Amino acid sequence: MKEFAHYGYAGATVQGIADRAELPKPNIIYYFNNKQAVYDKVLLNILKLFQERLSPITAEDDPAQVLKTYIHSKVSLARDYPAACRIFASEIVHGGQNLSPNMKQAMRKWANRSTTVFQQWVDEGKMTPVDPTHLLFMIWGSSQFYADYETQVKTVINRKKISRAHYQQAAETICDIVLRGCGLNSG
């Protein structure tokens, strides 16, 4: 993951992956036929990590609690797995060329399940009418920022490291804005 996060798919090498893993290159090739196979596994693991944060939800769940939990989870992913977040964002920014059809389908299916529940909450009057897909995109973008632009955040706050308290404050701010925008109590 670190090799892909640092060099991107195009710049990463099997030798670099082996060096980081402190293994001979043939050991990597034994388990993975090529760089693409390693990258596929990394992307699959990242997708699973992301999807576990909002699964499963139902229309019977409390929208405020679900959204708050999800936002906190996404910000904690940026804090705890910044390399994974950057790899996935880079893949998407570069057109998702290396996402397999199965990964794309799984991502769509997961997003559709989530936004369907969001829409049910809107339809039942549990939330202010908002576009569920754009709500999901907004949560992704605002929480992902802390991984993708970590250097910018550290520069602006004038710190060498982003503290847990700062991540907590970021999550609370995002929650407050999103929940109020959805007509939900953020308390």
Could you name the CATH homologous superfamily?
A: Tetracycline Repressor, domain 2
Largest sheet: none
Helix/strand/pairing category:
mainly alpha
Please indicate the percent range of residues in DSSP E strands (runs of 2 or more): under 5%
SS field, number of helical segments: 10
Distance between the amino and carboxyl termini: 37 Å
Summarize the model shown.
The protein is mainly alpha-helical and 187 residues long. The protein has helices spanning 2-11, 14-21, 25-31, 35-51, 63-80, 82-93, 101-123, 132-148, 150-157, 164-181. It has 10 helices and no strands.
Layout of strands and helices, then pairs:
Layout: H1 2-11, H2 14-21, H3 25-31, H4 35-51, H5 63-80, H6 82-93, H7 101-123, H8 132-148, H9 150-157, H10 164-181
Helix pairs in contact: 1-6, 2-3, 4-6, 5-6, 5-8, 5-10, 6-8, 8-10
What does this molecule look like?
The chain is mainly alpha-helical. It has a single domain (43-181), classed as Orthogonal Bundle (Tetracycline Repressor, domain 2). It has helices spanning 2-11, 14-21, 25-31, 35-51, 63-80, 82-93, 101-123, 132-148, 150-157, 164-181. The longest helix is centred in the middle third of the chain and has 23 residues, at 101-123. The protein is globular, with a radius of gyration of 18 Å. The relative contact order is 0.12.
